[in-house]
């Protein structure tokens, strides 16, 4: 019997089968159990071994591994709970990702695609082959437009390409540079991170900007977008799902011949925001209701556009946050991860050109304070032949699903939990010093802890998600890292997935929006200021460093 170290208790929260779900997760290990280089595998409940990619993250004093990053793929039946154990021994060898890193660029190959990132000429994708057919057209770019209409492009400046992670299950490649205008002027640094997974037909493209400019109070821009021409063809059909239609208010698949654009908006109107607060913001809607061929006049007044309650969640314009495209010889799928909570956002498709609005022009000017960073995750899938709407939508649902609760955010379909007793034995985060979770025995204590921790990730909005900002922006939650640590500890102690979701949102917010990545003052650079409604417009001091 192979020695078992830690078990990941996974739950498929959706009512659908998922054939191949990629899991990347860090796990704690007891001192003396695992050393770097030990053969490891993931064993399913039926004894089957799964291929595994590992990387040590931290070590115990005796040199054994304290934290290990795991990458593997597992299948889940609908609503299924699965126990997956990390055990000694090698997993089943299968063909994985391959990487070719040359002076011309980086080529990543899987069973789904062959993708090239060029070192010679900037583009989001220099090539994306599926079954030998090219899916990408020339001309992709990253564009920032300032408030005077001057445009700064990723393709105008110098850039670097590096492979950050290589394995058979997951590969990561990063591109870094500066948005540059035709006259050589620069505005904001950028980083593109590509995440390739062996069993995923989609690629995650993470775009981050960082303000390294000298103006003390930051810069303003009118628009930030990624543009990606494709080979899907001008006569393509766009695929959306309308969330609400008919007197029953059910969802329906829609096929649209003309150009389409979906938006994650501010509140539909002030009355909705006054009545429902932050919950009224970030609704994903189609820009042009005519795309859905609706006849609002045939609806009762309480379902028509303009009714406060109907419009609160987008009404007839409400749609799912993906766009599928079917062409004559191929198909595409694209979406922003967590598009709703990171509003304002936009995704558009027109004659084979995909546009991702990081900050849309219709949202007004955006102010990026000195030293701030913000990262955004985009998923793109290219398929070598036309596909049914149901198939493309299924790929989206393999990554993200909607509708958990009235105001539920988009969420991943699989949650992971651990045995609380084992976590205590590892002594990570001093968990052995905390009371075991026992509501019956410690009811007064648990009530108080629960009232403090909560399950939410805070406010919505591109700069606010992971924070808690008052509606009038007069104050914000403090940003010391112990708030993140508390959420992680309580996730392990209570085995409550939502607590980890909230803690990770706070961690990402602190690391990007609150962290000052650049400042000419050495006492300020690399710190977090005392928290303010606009995140970094306050003084830095030791408790926040």
Give a brief description.
The chain is mainly beta and 545 residues long. The chain contains seven helices and 30 strands.
Describe this structure in words.
The longest helix is centred in the C-terminal third of the chain and has 18 residues, at 497-514. The strands form five sheets. The chain has a nine-stranded antiparallel beta sheet, with helices on one face. The radius of gyration is 24 Å and the shape is globular. Strand 10 and strand 11 form a beta hairpin. The protein has helices at 270-276, 308-312, 389-399, 420-426, 443-453, 482-494, 497-514, and strands at 4-12, 18-28, 40-43, 49-50, 53-59, 65-76, 81-88, 98-101, 105-109, 114-118, 127-130, 133-134, 141-146, 151-153, 159-165, 170-180, 186-197, 202-210, 219-229, 237-245, 250-256, 260-264, 284-286, 322-326, 331-336, 345-350, 353-359, 366-368, 373-383, 414-417. It has four domains: 4-88, Immunoglobulin-like (Sandwich), CATH 2.60.40; 98-229, no CATH class; 237-403, no CATH class; 415-514, no CATH class. Helix 6 packs antiparallel against helix 7 (497-514). The model has no long low-confidence stretch (mean pLDDT 92). By secondary structure, it is mainly beta. The two termini are 47 Å apart.
Question: Keywords for this structure?
Answer:
mainly beta; 13% helix; 545 residues; 4 domains; 30 strands; 9-stranded antiparallel beta sheet; globular; 8-stranded antiparallel beta sheet; Immunoglobulin-like; single chain
């Amino acid at each position: 019997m192979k020695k078992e170290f830690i078990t990941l208790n996974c739950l498929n929260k959706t009512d659908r089968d998922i054939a191949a779900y990629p899991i990347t997760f860090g796990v704690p290990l007891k001192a003396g159990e695992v050393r770097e280089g030990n053969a490891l595998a993931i064993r399913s409940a039926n004894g089957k071994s799964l291929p595994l990619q590992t990387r040590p993250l931290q070590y115990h004093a005796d040199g054994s591994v304290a934290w290990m990053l795991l990458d593997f793929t597992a299948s889940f039946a609908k609503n299924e709970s699965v126990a997956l154990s990390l055990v000694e021994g090698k997993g089943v060898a299968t063909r994985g990702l391959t990487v070719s890193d040359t002076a011309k660029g980086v080529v990543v190959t899987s069973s789904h695609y062959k993708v090239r990132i060029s070192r010679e000429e900037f583009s989001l994708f220099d090539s994306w082959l599926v079954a030998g057919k090219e899916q990408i057209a020339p001309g992709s770019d990253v564009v920032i437009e300032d408030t005077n209409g001057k445009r700064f492009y990723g393709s105008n400046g110098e850039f670097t390409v590096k492979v950050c992670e290589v394995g058979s299950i997951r590969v990561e490649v990063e591109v870094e540079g500066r948005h540059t205008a035709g006259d050589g002027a620069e505005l904001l640094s950028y980083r593109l991170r590509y995440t390739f997974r062996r069993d995923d037909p989609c690629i995650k493209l993470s775009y981050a900007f960082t303000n390294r400019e000298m103006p003390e109070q930051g810069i303003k821009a009118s628009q930030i977008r990624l543009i990606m021409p494709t080979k899907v063809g001008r006569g393509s059909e766009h695929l959306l799902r309308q969330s609400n239609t008919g007197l029953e208010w059910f969802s329906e698949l829609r096929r649209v011949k003309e150009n389409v654009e979906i938006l994650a908006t501010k509140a539909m109107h002030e009355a909705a925001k006054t009545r429902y607060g932050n919950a009224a913001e970030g609704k994903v809607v189609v820009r042009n209701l005519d795309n859905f061929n609706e006849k609002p006049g045939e609806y009762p007044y309480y379902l028509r556009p303009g009714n406060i309650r109907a419009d609160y969640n987008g009404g007839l314009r409400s749609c799912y946050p993906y766009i599928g495209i079917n062409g004559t010889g191929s198909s595409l799928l694209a979406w922003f991860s967590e598009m709703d909570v990171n509003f304002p956002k936009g995704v558009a498709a027109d004659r084979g050109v995909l546009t991702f609005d990081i900050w849309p022009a219709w949202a007004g000017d955006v102010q990026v304070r000195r030293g701030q960073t913000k990262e955004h995750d985009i998923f793109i899938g290219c398929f070598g032949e036309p596909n049914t709407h149901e198939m493309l939508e299924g790929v989206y649902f393999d990554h993200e699903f909607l509708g958990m609760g009235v105001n539920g955010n988009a969420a991943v379909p699989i949650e992971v939990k651990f045995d609380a007793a084992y976590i205590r034995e590892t002594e990570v985060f001093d968990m052995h010093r905390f009371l075991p979770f026992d509501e019956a025995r410690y009811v007064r204590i648990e009530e108080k802890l629960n009232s403090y921790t909560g399950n939410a990730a805070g406010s919505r909005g591109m700069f606010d998600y992971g924070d808690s900002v008052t509606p009038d922006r007069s104050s914000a939650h403090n940003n010391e890292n112990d708030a993140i640590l508390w959420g992680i500890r309580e996730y392990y102690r209570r085995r409550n997935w939502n607590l980890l979701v909230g803690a990770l949102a706070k961690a990402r917010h602190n690391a990007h929006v609150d962290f000052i990545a650049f400042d000419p003052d050495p006492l300020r650079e690399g710190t977090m200021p005392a928290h303010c409604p606009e995140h970094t417009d306050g003084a830095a001091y030791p408790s926040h460093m």
